[in-house]
């Protein structure tokens, strides 16, 4: 997100004009929105994980690498749903 969104948006903000074309505008908007939602959902997943570890320590062994990977994939899937819906 930083590599794609920040340079293009910063340059456009300084110059006052979007110079990269319509396709790049749509792509940057999609990527920034996608990864912004992805970050929020990952933060939620970490919060739920920490809640389970602290309040229900007997469930901690069930949080495996497979569960963590599924959680990250689910976060990305939810994040991908947001910008794809018109």
Whole-number radius of gyration?
18 Å
| Residue windows where pLDDT falls under 50 for at least 5 positions | none
Biggest sheet character = none
Quick one: how many beta strands? Answer: 0
Which of globular, elongated, flat, extended, rod-shaped describes the shape? elongated
H/E element sequence: HHH
Number of domains: 1
Chart the SSEs and their pairings.
Layout: H1 2-15, H2 22-55, H3 65-84
Helix pairs in contact: 2-3
Q: Could you describe the 3D structure shown?
A:
Pfam families: 7tm_1 (PF00001). This protein is mostly helical. The protein has one domain. The mean pLDDT is 88. It is 79% helix and 0% strand. The longest helix has 34 residues.
Short overview:
The chain has three helices and no strands. The protein has 86 residues and is mainly α. The two termini are 21 Å apart.
Short descriptors:
86 residues, mainly alpha, transmembrane, transmembrane helix, GPCR_Rhodpsn_7TM
């Amino acid at each position: 997100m930083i590599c794609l969104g920040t340079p293009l948006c910063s340059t456009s903000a300084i110059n006052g004009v979007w110079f990269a074309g319509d396709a790049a505008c749509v792509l940057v908007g999609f990527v920034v929105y996608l990864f912004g939602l992805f970050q929020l959902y990952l933060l939620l997943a970490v919060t739920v994980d920490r809640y389970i570890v602290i309040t229900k320590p007997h469930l901690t062994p069930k949080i495996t690498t497979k569960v963590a990977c599924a959680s990250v994939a689910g976060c990305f899937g939810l994040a991908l749903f947001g910008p794809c819906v018109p």
